[in-house]
Amino acid sequence: MSLAKTYVVLDKSFLQGAPKDTLQLLFDNHCVLMPFVNFYELFTTTPLERARCFQRLPKGENPVSLVESIDFIRRWEVQNRRPLLDIQHAVRPEQFHFNSGLVNETFQMREDQSKYLEELKEEVSSKVKAFAEHCSQITVRFPELRNYRPGGSTSQIEEIQKRICTDSEFVRGFYSGLPGHTGPPAEHINEQWALFKWLQ
Q1: pTM for the full model?
Q2: Whole-angstrom Cα distance, residue 150 to residue 89?
Q3: 139-152 tens-digit pLDDT
Q4: Sign of the CA dihedral 150, 154, 160, 162?
Q5: Alpha carbons 171 and 164: distance in angstroms, whole number
Q6: Cα(45)–Cα(102) distance, rounded to whole angstroms?
Q7: Strand locations in the chain (E)
Q8: First and final C-alpha spacing in the chain
């Protein structure tokens, strides 16, 4: 009886730098997951880097399992009122082949594909701005950091990091205080939830 293949998340840096025989062993022996953010990176890098990466991916049907974004996973958990413990719930179900032209530096996307990619770039840019705005408010949540200056002692930062990593009640309290909170009750979420990890 053969054992089920274990999941491995494919990182762009690993795809670029690992020896070819290591990559081959990876694809032969594991279920390789490509998160949405990695897929996005491949299409927003230089044409040369994109071609080199696609040259290192297997050919044929479903060479990797494409995993939806963290936004999709969080929505799934909120809608289903439970943690997403089986990654297959977030794997895109359709059969696909990567376009064979992607291995060439000169590959040109169709107009509709280019338009979709530009929309994705705008969406990502908007999320980055929202995250930067969130970070600029960090001293509201952690007033003890108001007097911190770069180069100063990091002891307070380390204390906060430790609390975020070890104090589940603190994370749940942060979750309860989110504006427009409509998800599962705070007492239901824990370290098994992607939502909890995202909050951390």
Answers
A1: 0.82
A2: 42
A3: 888 898 888 888 88
A4: positive
A5: 6
A6: 12
A7: 6-9, 30-35, 65-67
A8: 40
